[in-house]
Amino acid sequence: MFEELIAGRYFAEFLAMAIAHALAVMSPGPDFAVVSRYSVRHGARTAIWVSAGIGIGILIHVTYSILGLALIINQTPWLYQLLLLVASAYFFWLGWNAIRSAPIPVNTGDVKIEILPVVSPARAFTVGFLTNGLNIKATMFFLALFTSIISVQTPLVVKAGYGAYLALATFIWFASLSLMIGKTRIRSILLSHGYWFDRVMGVVLWLLAIHLLWQWWQHP
């Protein structure tokens, strides 16, 4: 199977999938907002755990897409509407926590920045996992991916390999974003302007939640 992939039998399919995923993962969304917030407020290490949760969350979408459940979700109005409501409530909760964040004490000199309270790796991972797992945008993306780009005839082992790539590529992108924001002067600049960044990210999450509610309202 690996030889067939290298020989080009599935290479074109993989390349199309990888390009579509790259464009999707770099577009603004709840994953981006959560990773950015945790990078600024809690640092790169915590944000990398959030990124790991997001990457593993991708496997949820891959699994139900391979099993054909994504199509069932899309064609079952009550189930789709329920997911919209759950996701909207979760994003509202994340946004509320961001908006009500207290000012952050910042040392802009040579003193190490200390941010409290400390977020445990397990909690950070769970936030990332739930953010991606409840992302309806991701559900629709993978539905399109596994019905238009990835052939039904593609062997299960190849699809599983695609899923592993998607999870890893997602983690690498958001881990890189975590390091770019949380380990550079960008973080100090954002922190020095107070807690407005948290509130902006909270508003972004609320706008995403409102968009989901609007979809719920419009969905037949």
Largest sheet: none
Count of spatially separate domains: 1
Distance between the termini: 43 Å
Helix content: over 70%
Whole-angstrom Rg? 19 Å
Characteristics of this structure?
220 residues; mainly alpha; 0% strand
Secondary structure: elements and pairs:
Blueprint (H helix, E strand, L loop, with lengths): L1 H6 L3 H15 L4 H13 L1 H23 L2 H7 L1 H23 L21 H13 L2 H14 L6 H27 L2 H8 L3 H23 L2
Helix pairs in contact: 2-9, 3-4, 3-7, 3-9, 3-11, 4-7, 4-8, 4-9, 6-11
Question: Explain this structure to me?
Answer:
The protein has 220 residues and is an all-alpha fold. It has one domain (2-218). It is built from 11 helices and no strands. It has helices at residues 2-7, 11-25, 30-42, 44-66, 69-75, 77-99, 121-133, 136-149, 156-182, 185-192, 196-218.
Describe the structure in brief:
Helix content is 78%, strand content 0%.
